[in-house]
Design brief:
- The structure is a homodimer of 347-residue chains.
- Chain A is α/β, with parallel strands linked by helices and 347 residues long.
- The first copy, chain A, has two domains: 129 residues, Rossmann fold, CATH 3.40.50.2300; 140 residues, Response regulator (Rossmann fold, 3-Layer(aba) Sandwich), CATH 3.40.50.2300.
- The first copy, chain A, contains 13 helices and twelve strands.
- In chain A, helix 9 links the parallel strand 6 and strand 7.
- In chain A, helix 1 packs across helix 3.
- The longest helix of chain A is centred in the C-terminal third of the chain and has 17 residues.
- Chain A is elongated, with a radius of gyration of 26 Å.
- Chain A starts with 8 loop residues before the first helix and ends in a 16-residue tail after the last strand.
- The interface between A and B is large, with 52 and 53 residues.
- Strand 2 of chain A pairs antiparallel with strand 2 of chain B.
- Chain B binds a DNA duplex (16 and 16 nucleotides) through helix 2 and helix 4.
DNA sequence: TTGTAGGCGTTATCAC
DNA sequence: GTGATAACGCCTACAA
């Protein structure tokens, strides 16, 4: 079958006793070639195990059918689901997905540079978790088709798909204050510069004000979205947090689960002595005991829509920027202590 | 800055009043270039916003610095961790990672074909969960450097990194039969053709025989590795499974967690009335109540080592095939009912 | 319907 | 040190 030395279109042409262009036609516009010749060429292709060279092809066509997906991290189900959705949609549209993630020291800004530097990508979908100046700058000067996930960039000329975090977080906060009767709310977020944390904290402050609840600065914590860290913090603080009408708003389900586990381990009953809610509705929310009240974020959909937008722009570079806003959904379960609220079936 | 029309190396050369070759030399820093000319060229590059065309470059160099990672699925932490490890290692070695996964109808075999068809990949790391004839065939005739994950392919000429599943599963089975005193063991695996399930089932049978325990055909189930499916099955069967010395060996942690949850919901105490163990030691294992006894599979490491092997082969195509076997590790927690066994600290 | 020839943007091999 | 020039493998007018 496949010889070990690279076989080119010229080899096929010779073997089929036709010209190079005819082989090319067979490869691309099959209809424009005589039936008999086509069969002969196809036979030669098979015999030689010929595979068109994608570099040469790309050099002419100026496209690789590859798009990049740049994520701030790869840890946990949140990103995993985005990848899953993006991958499925990319395949659907005939693209391959090139994955990359900020890691350790080097931030997204450096990666953005690298991605457009000597790259074969037709475009990039990028999720930024912090909007530093350098990142804004990198986005603004980006040379490839671009789609921004999750972050709101003011006056951005790029396509973007965002979650209406504010709305979801407000709904959650109203639920716990109105339905579950929380009066003291501990906020446990990610890093202070994280865009998601910022949006959720804003909602926290807004509803606190709405309900005339005092803002206690010491009740706002900034961690890193990880289970373990939240567990450790809660293990230390949970007794001081506990009390009637007290609850924790964790900025994601992982941290919420860690807090529930730490509370339970410390003998603090959830939700009776300390209620807890999370965010994202990853699978861990249902597996926690009690199951977490949370806000469902359509992660896979977000990935899929971003890829879709990106591919549309690649196909039609001049179209006006589109912004897709995905609505999150309040998922009321038992960890918040609201009486008998079951908005949907639970596993 | 960057003009909108593609600027080539020729433009840079003209602007810097040098030849194309000199620009190329500046770019690749191989040979010495006069300091003054170098500066002039670099200035021109900046002024024009020149980025070398990766296709043309690849056409000459015959490499893209991209490697593929082909997974059977993208669902859940298992694959997510493999991706994470692979991505980190790829970056480390200067490669980009192109992700792909079998989805719905089209199996890995079709994907393998597609990947080498018109692709710019320097090599592919592939994880196969079923060793059908078509897949074996696709692997055997693969034209690119290849590294196989997880599956044992007899007499394979390829590099591979595998987990010694058998050994891990045997250790687990011995633990539950000897330390925890199980005498009836329900096995809940993935699909019958799944390579992991096969290995774990073999260990199950082996230790059953070792311990002179009867094999009850009705006690072997084949599901799909999902939490929900396992929950549903257990919800229905858990009362008939319960009993002193009875336990469930689930082939992954997700299913084990589902079974624990279903048992708890049905009022069957874990591990007193029904013990449960899982496999993989994903994070869910620690979060389950009681925490799961399981076998730790170094998923991220598996991904990283596969990429490493692959890149070594790309660099040195003629080297003899390497096979890396990673050892799993028994993690004894509380769900198995063994008395006071704590091999390691728990979160 | 098929062939010829030019070009895509690099790198590599020579000369100078 | 630097500059022509020939590959690399493919696509696509244009000609036949």
């Amino acid at each position: 079958m496949a010889g070990s030395m690279p076989v080119s279109i010229a080899d096929v042409a010779k073997k089929a006793r036709v010209s190079i262009s005819t082989v090319s036609r067979v490869l691309n516009r099959r209809q424009l070639v005589n039936e008999k010749t086509r069969v002969r060429v196809e036979q030669a292709i098979r015999d030689l195990g010929y595979r068109p060279n994608a570099f040469a092809r790309g050099l002419m066509l100026r496209r690789s059918e590859m798009i990049g997906l740049l994520l701030p991290d790869l840890h946990g189900e949140f990103y995993s689901e985005i990848i899953r959705g993006a991958n499925a949609q990319a395949r659907e549209l005939g693209y391959n997905l090139v994955l990359s993630s900020a890691r350790d020291g080097d931030d997204s800004h450096a990666l953005l540079r690298a991605m457009q530097q000597r790259t074969l990508l037709d475009g990039v979908a990028v999720m930024v978790s912090e909007l530093t100046d350098r990142i804004q700058e990198a986005l603004a000067g980006f040379a490839l088709p671009l789609c921004v996930l999750d972050a709101e960039v003011d006056g951005s000329p790029h396509d973007s798909v965002v979650i209406d975090q504010r709305q979801g977080a407000v709904a959650l906060m109203r639920h716990v204050t109105q339905r579950a009767g929380w009066r003291r709310i501990i906020f446990v977020g990610g890093h202070e510069t994280n865009v998601d944390t910022i949006a959720r904290l804003e909602a926290y402050l807004q509803v606190l004000a709405e309900r005339d609840l005092p803002l206690v600065p010491g009740d706002v914590y900034h961690l890193d979205y990880q289970y373990d860290t939240a567990y450790a913090l809660a293990a230390e603080r949970v007794r001081s947090w506990a009390g009637p009408g007290h609850g924790v708003f964790a900025a994601n389900d992982e941290m919420a689960a860690g807090i529930v586990a730490a509370a339970t381990a410390a003998g603090v009953a959830v939700p009776q002595e300390l209620a807890v809610v999370g965010f994202d509705d990853t699978r861990i929310a249902r597996m926690t005991r009690p199951p977490l009240t949370t806000v469902r974020v359509p992660m896979a959909k977000m990935g899929a829509r971003a890829v879709e937008l990106l591919c549309q722009r690649i196909a039609e570079p001049q179209r006006p920027p589109t912004r897709i806003s995905l609505q999150p959904e309040l998922i009321a379960r038992e960890s918040c202590g609201a009486p008998g609220v079951r908005l949907r079936a639970q596993a």
